[in-house]
Amino acid sequence: MNSYSKLSKNELQNEIEKLEKRYNAFKEQKLKLDMTRGKPCSEQLDMCMEILDIPSRELRKAADGTDTFNYGVLDGLPEAKELFAEMLDVDKSEVIIGGNSSLNLMYDAVARAMSLGILGSTPWSKLDRVKFLCPSPGYDRHFAICELLGIEMITIDMRQDGPDMDTVEKLVSEDDSIKGMWCVPKYSNPDGITYSDRVVDRIAALRPKAKDFRVFWDNAYCVHHLSDKPDELKNILTACKASGNDNMVYVFSSTSKISFPGAGIAAMAASVENLNGIRKSMTIQTIGHDKINQLRHVRYFKNLDGINLHMKKHASILKPKFDIVNEILEKELGGKEIASWNKPNGGYFISLNTLNNCAKEVEKLSLEAGVVLTKAGATYPYGKDPKDRNIRIAPTLPPVEELKKAIEIFCISIRLVSAKKFLEMA
Amino acid sequence: MNSYSKLSKNELQNEIEKLEKRYNAFKEQKLKLDMTRGKPCSEQLDMCMEILDIPSRELRKAADGTDTFNYGVLDGLPEAKELFAEMLDVDKSEVIIGGNSSLNLMYDAVARAMSLGILGSTPWSKLDRVKFLCPSPGYDRHFAICELLGIEMITIDMRQDGPDMDTVEKLVSEDDSIKGMWCVPKYSNPDGITYSDRVVDRIAALRPKAKDFRVFWDNAYCVHHLSDKPDELKNILTACKASGNDNMVYVFSSTSKISFPGAGIAAMAASVENLNGIRKSMTIQTIGHDKINQLRHVRYFKNLDGINLHMKKHASILKPKFDIVNEILEKELGGKEIASWNKPNGGYFISLNTLNNCAKEVEKLSLEAGVVLTKAGATYPYGKDPKDRNIRIAPTLPPVEELKKAIEIFCISIRLVSAKKFLEMA
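Output (structure tokens, whole complex):
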């Protein structure tokens, strides 16, 4: 079929009529399909049951003799550090193990800088303005942390190889109120983009005016491949050291989408100096995190090979879902020039752009036919997409049959909104 | 034996000679006995193994159908709230479940008030001064939170029925920079005192000048009895409501010393309005805490009866240790008028006061003979005991034979330091 832009008024009217029939047929089914969040599906979680069936006697004693059942060990068991060190390709001295949530580690890292500063800098809360760079579309929960804590967000365009580095370089070198930058460098949320080596090198080589500027490197999807030819991400800690910027980056990760969302383990990687700074306040905040759960994960996965094997099983469940979404998008929207979308090699999302000023209307129409999408705008700071066009598709949770229906309804909604736009202009 | 104050110079010299012989005999054993922290002992933890052996299939589905293996449920499973509601004698709508650490909940509560204020008040970090009342001797980790976050601490004397309320009432009604007060109201750390009904009522009836004043009610030892006639603590939330102070208190508790220190569950109880205020930022900080561990605890303990039964088993292990300490203290120090100590009905500590200006010296002497005590002074703000006399004894962790030796060395140290004091003055 031709591009909508080339349809005549009559053709558009016909198209709308046909689409409305399909739309109403779905509406009558009174569906309730939730596509809001990047959650693993039930089958993925089924695979992890065994982690919880490791007998208690195997969970009590850590390799160094620590009784995991008692107090102690502020920043994680050595074997848990080793597991994350291997996964993140850093030294185990560069790892701190947290609780069940990397989001919480990130929140704490920002909140700590607000209250206490970083390595002796002025607490950010004592400054008139604090700003973060926010490559967008991006992860809404990152932006929410900034908003809650009163940090101004500056939107940075995402390109096909990562953030627009010309702008990033210029801004951080000129403005010492810019204290941070959010990055999801691999299979980014929502674009599924992996930063190129060139972009990683340029980030590592930044010369920020603020000495307490930190890159918040949320490597949430480091082992979450959907393809046999996974993307490769250059090691940011190594690149930072090569640039003499050893302290400039905080890396975050977790097993939330490897084992259990909400009952996995989170970790942070950074220079030893950064981690020592963090330990000083971490030791006041808690006596330590859940060592039994740490050991449970180490006993089950053993090493990176164990994790990779497990993630292949995840991919065998998720890949068909991503393929189905792509097929339906192609079939319904292909050639019409009303939407574009990414085909990621990993991660949890497909990012779709509608024509300008259509995303909110598409969200509304989909909702009325029973499909709840991530809120349009959520992928931008303050929930405001300047072009009102980006929608994050989260295909992982719904069963395949539901997913098919949801994406079909979503596509019909895009087509309806777009056809009506063109009709208005015709 | 007579009071040391009545011994002649000669008698004191003889006493010191005899004590030094005993002391040196211990010193030659090159012991390493750790009495620093209130940790459960190995046998207590053995009792909890079964909690971890509940099969995974019984941990997956919460009563309301929630898949505990996936994301969601910010503030705890309903059944976990019910368990804590029963334990703390509050409504389940007044409970939020946290992660593995009530200390972390307390830190977060203070840090949140610093960054964001409480229910619309000015963030404490924007004020010139913020002060907390610190009944002392008290819990060093409470004081450490204040010190880290730059909160001034005002020492309040602990009496036999709780904090000196005349001073508390006067100070909070006059000074609006006083924003908080730490309390361990039951089997207090370290005194083992339970606040009287009268004290609880006076706290509940405070008329603080600061509207955002909060009592941080750390009910860590609510079910940790050592006697068949446990102390009773008046319900602070109820008392606050009766005084029209519904929002004035945050209650904290956990299963750290019921199940696993570091792998239990923590909870907070407060008015619905307070909790709604907290949820607003909590939802930015985390997606939710470990629901699997919540369900594990609920499945095992079932209800308060289950917890109480379990705690009786704990008491059967701990009571003999407390008795031994008391016997040795009595035998070594009784009648000498050089030390006084409490005989608590529960909790984890025995608090001992030496003569003035002796505690640090006793700590040093004990250490040289291989007994590590909680740092003298740690039970006071800034680690400074104005009378240098309070020492916290933590008898729970060491095996009985070690405990006997440690307390004997400790007593010899007290006697030596005291005898030398009197000799100096003789």
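Residues 161 and 198 of chain B are 9 Å apart (CA to CA).
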